[in-house]
Amino acid sequence: MKLHEYQSKQIFAKYGIPIPKGRVAATATEARQIAEELGGRVVVKSQVLVGGRGKAGGIRLAKSAKEAEEIATQILGMEIKGLPVRKVLVDLAANIEQEIYLGITNDRAARRPVFMASSAGGVEIEEVARINPEKIIKVHIDPLLGLRDYQARDIAIGIDLPKEYWKQFIDICRGLWHAYMECDATLAEINPLVILKEKSLMALDGKMLLDDNALFRHPDLAEMRDVDEEATAETEARKYGLSFIKLDGDIGCMVNGAGLAMTTMDIVKLFGGEPANFLDIGGGASADKVAAAMRIILSDKNVKAILFNVFGGITRCDEVAKGILTALAEVKPSIPMVVRLVGTNAEEGRKLLAEAHMITAETLADAARMSVAAAKDRRPK
Amino acid sequence: MSILVDKKTRLLVQGITGNEGLFHTQQMLEYGTKVVAGTRPGKGGEWVLDGKVPVFDSCKAAVDATGANASIIFVAAAFAPDAIFESADAGIPFIVCITEGIPVQDMMRVREYLDQKQVRLLGPNCPGLLTPGEAKVGIIPGDIAIPGNVGVVSRSGTLTYEVLYALKLVGMGATTCVGIGGDPINGTNFIDCLSLFEDDPHTEKVVMIGEIGGTDEEKAAQFIASRMTKPVVSFIAGQTAPPGKRMGHAGAIIEGGAGTAADKVKALEAAGVKVAKHPEEIPSLLK
Fold first, then answer.
1. What residues of chain A lie within 8 A of the CB of B211, using their CB?
2. Residues B33, B9: contact at Cβ < 8 Å?
3. Left if phi > 0, otherwise alpha if psi is -120 to 50, otherwise beta: which for A336?
4. A162 preceded by cis ω (within 30°)?
């Protein structure tokens, strides 16, 4: 789950990391009021969950409250990479001397969290990694020990941070570490962390990604999810514990298991079709869950055929068959459906579906071929 | 012959009284696996499945009473890390964790601790493993595989079943099939299994099933090129997966342009591995 800049910075502030004075606004009038309260120059920043806001013109400086209102009006009417801007953050502008990058993420290969820092802040770290990889300092953290002060000092030395800032920098590293740990983040990033002309450090921008698997123990963070920013079908799917991603094709796929779901998409493509979605009904799928999955697939009007591919392990095929029947009774779809059930209780499952006029396939290749053919028949000639 | 589990495996089931725990314990018993004990705090002293398996309050008590030498975990994600620690502290040398959805930071701590204790973990978010004709430790349906000379290792669950089934249809069998799981941080990895298969005299060929995300397949390709003498056939899922989206498995995501199926296929082919276009093509590539 992605957090907005303003949400990330609020969390950082709780952990003692200095952030600019400012607030979030949903209207231009509000933006003006905030600018008036702050006094002086402000930065108006679009709050959308994509990168490259600056380049798109979604971050602009305003010299007065009136100008802030004008700029907010423009930004609130924008779309950035297809996402409408619904909120702006109005922050007091800072006098910047130098920009630094500081972030923590999970290093999969090392199986540890890694701090990354660079004296070349303000740009995307992937960009720095590509052009000046030597400019990135990486320090891995023992997950059982946590960040030690000497490691934070090593980072400061590594990015040539002047001595007078070390103490504050170590405090910020510690704050960021605790924010990352205690929020179960997979990324906590300050970019840029700036040295102000006033000789102190401040986090001007922030980004956090949270581990969806850990949200059960963070109800407060789970509430921060911006459902406006994701496809409704994906929100609906999550409610039922389904994993769903919409794609552009016309063959709906309902599969148990992520690997098999990806493979089913791949094989549809291999046989000349285009998958309409990724959908994993997960382990131990109940009838309710399968019915919900079917409704979600059918809500996509592009879908011209559905391919059910279920290999029973922890999911029992008779359960899935019951789900399909429940959904059929409820949704009454008019498009062809190809079903393939193999594994635990497959025979019982197949028996249940025998009367429901479904096309059944033996192999995955056959199932893909049949659904591609079925979808083709229904495309406008 | 086999790797990791066989007839001598004495299995402890953590979370044996839950729905999934009970269902799969029964399946494992029917397959012939020696399930010697189960745990469920508060239900110590009871028996499950018509008095076939004793239940204990703790792993320590179960190990002391039954000499269990492997455990399998069917405990909810919130409690699974604790179950892994408990099992390791009770002296179990091999732990299989089926549970899906364990937070990644928990897994980093688990992995660090287990490495220090030199305990082997399989999973989490995995289907376990199957040595056809000898032992089933996990949820892989027993009837989809027959004994044979192919070692199978996979990041996926149901996709693995698909491959085992395709092998069985043409009369090919497996020494052992290992599902290593789809999480970004897990225990046993591809290289561990490839190395075990390379050393197992009964394994003659290996099938490796990967998917998008991370660089484990690329590392495995290097290992295959430098260390493996046995032929390896592979399949990589996620050719059509869009970047930046988590494809169900926490670990199946193309991040910053890395971890694409194309990269993995290229690395494997460069290592001399035959890569199948779809899972049902694997048996013909093994011949």
1. 258-259, 262
2. yes
3. beta
4. no
Residues A79 and A192 in one domain: no
- Quote the number of domains for chain A: 3
Q: What is the pTM of this model?
A: 0.91
Q: Kindly state whether residues A367 and A237 are assigned to the same domain.
A: yes
Shortest Cα distance, chain B CAs vs residue A245, angstroms: 8
A182-206 mean pLDDT? 97
Mean pLDDT of chain B: 95
Q: Which of A222, A257, A272 is the last residue of a domain?
A: A222
Q: Is A124 a catalytic residue?
A: no
pLDDT (tens digit, 9 = 90+) per residue, A266-318? 999 999 999 999 999 876 667 778 888 888 998 899 999 999 998 876 667 88
DSSP B35: E
Catalytic residue among A5, A69, A189, A319: A189
Question: Cα–Cα distances in Å, from B273 out to A105, A107, B207?
Answer: 33, 27, 10
What is the residue whose two structure tokens read 């249809």? B169
In 10 A of CB B226, how many CB atoms?
8
Residues A210 and A107 grouped into a single domain: yes
> If we measure between CA atoms, which residue out of B58, B61, B31, B36 comes closest to residue B47?
B36
Gap between the Cα atoms of A21 and A44, Å rounded: 12
Q: Whole-angstrom Cα distance, residue A83 to residue B122? A: 41
Same domain membership, residue A372 and residue A273: yes
In whole angstroms, what is the distance from residue B163 CA to residue B150 CA? 11
Q: Is residue A245 part of a domain?
A: yes
pLDDT of the residue at B1:
59
Sign of the C-alpha dihedral computed for residues A107, A111, A115 and A116 taken in this order: negative
**SS3 state of residue A343:** strand
pLDDT in tens, B35-57: 999 999 999 999 999 999 999 99
A212 and A237 in a single domain? The answer is: no
Concatenated DSSP letters of A65-134: HHHHHHHHHHHHT-EETTEEP--EEEEE---EEEEEEEEEEEETTTTEEEEEEESS-SS-HHHHHHH-GG
**A291/A361 same-domain check:** yes
Cβ pair B158:A259 closer than 8 A: yes
Tell me the range of B98-102, B247-251, B257-261 where mean pLDDT is highest.
B98-102
Residue A322 DSSP code: H
- The domains found in chain B, sorted by start residue, are 10-122 (3.40.50.720), 140-286 (3.40.50.261)
Q: Is residue A8 part of a domain?
A: no
Cross-chain residue pair B238–A245, CB shorter than 8 Å: no
Q: Which of A162, A98, A109 is nearest to A138 (CA)?
A: A109
Q: Can you tell me the ipTM of this complex?
A: 0.90
Nearest to A241 by CA among B15, B101, B182: B101
Q: A117 and A81 share a domain?
A: no
Distance CA B239, CA A267 (A): 9
Identify the domain boundary among A222, A249, A283: A222
Q: Is residue A1 part of a domain?
A: no
Query: How many contacts does A have with B, using Cβ atoms within 8 A?
Result: 178
The domain in which residue A103 lies consists of 96-222
Interacting residues of A139 by C-beta distance below 8 A, sequence separation 6+? A114, A115, A151, A154, A155, A158
